[in-house]
């Protein structure tokens, strides 16, 4: 009879909560640590909604991972009876000659993805809440919508506990050290525990926990802003999530209650974070200028004055591709970090891949382009 593996999960946020679920489901003895508690708003997994999309804007190699994540989203919802994801569609708009819009059409063609190209006249009738420029392309991804980040993290963590995992809340991990002969030790302020392997998903604290990491993960401060419509009839329109490319890249997600719209900007508008433990959560008036210009130009049905603001952190690699795999020379320490603002939709897949690597040493999922093995750039 095979020995039951003992696995630590360091960080129970976007990916760590999913890794704990997948590890526990496969019979591992799981102990998960978090400096706060599952579902907290101190990092990236907050703001009530995140975009889920099947169509990729930058790299078609993510498509098989999205399909794997799609199956696991369904599985987690079925196991828990919670609505974690709602498919409302996602509308992509932008200049037809924009590189990312061209990539969208290329990925759709290569992978045979469901989609709908909508001309300007049809767009104005069907989606009156959006305004586009001359020469813009509009593409609807019907296998898209939004996921609920806080609810998802708490649900995955709770499911992991139901399957036998133990979660140590409000317990920051100070070190993850290799042990001679194999295995790792996880040290906190109160004790040290030994494990066969560790899955390390520290979010923006990756530099604190692993200061000698051979790849750079830069942390940025991202602002989310919520806006209300000027007219009640806006709530009656078809309300997909949306992503705009071009000179002001942004995304938006209608709130689950059907009233407000949450907007966010691209990385170019995020400020760097020197210390994730001292995040500035105050939004200055001048930081809203791009939001205001964006709303007035492309979303005329919204009042340009936000009713709510929130600040989060996101980790970016130089290539914007996440780090997924073992630390150099340590197959028993599995790192998942630097998701570059696009990790949540894929989080169940990444959690499952983490379980593959921790328990089996490899994964059948196509992660070569993300793997830490042999990687010389971030």
Provide a descriptive summary of the structure in words.
The structure is a single chain. The protein has 378 residues and is α+β, with helices and mostly antiparallel strands. It is built from 8 helices and 21 strands. Strands 5, 6, 7, 14, 15, 16, 17, 18 and 19 form a 9-stranded mixed sheet that branches. Helix 1 (16-25) packs parallel to helix 5 (149-162), helix 1 (16-25) packs across helix 8 and helix 2 (63-80) packs across helix 8 (347-360). It is globular, with a radius of gyration of 21 Å. The mean pLDDT is 94.
- Derived from helix and strand composition plus strand pairing, the structural class reads alpha+beta
Annotation, overall tally of beta strands: 21
How is the main sheet built?
Answer: 9 strands, mixed
How large, in whole angstroms, is the Cα Rg?
21 Å
Name the poorly predicted regions.
none
Helix content: 10-25%
Order of helices and strands: EHEEHEEHEHEEHEEEEEHEEEEEHEEEH
- Beta-strand content bin: 25-35%
Alpha carbon gap, first and last residue: 40 Å
Q: Report the average pLDDT across residues.
A: 94
Any idea what the shape is? globular
Secondary structure tally, helices = 8
Please sum up the structure shown:
The chain is α+β, with helices and mostly antiparallel strands. Helix content is 24%, strand content 27%.
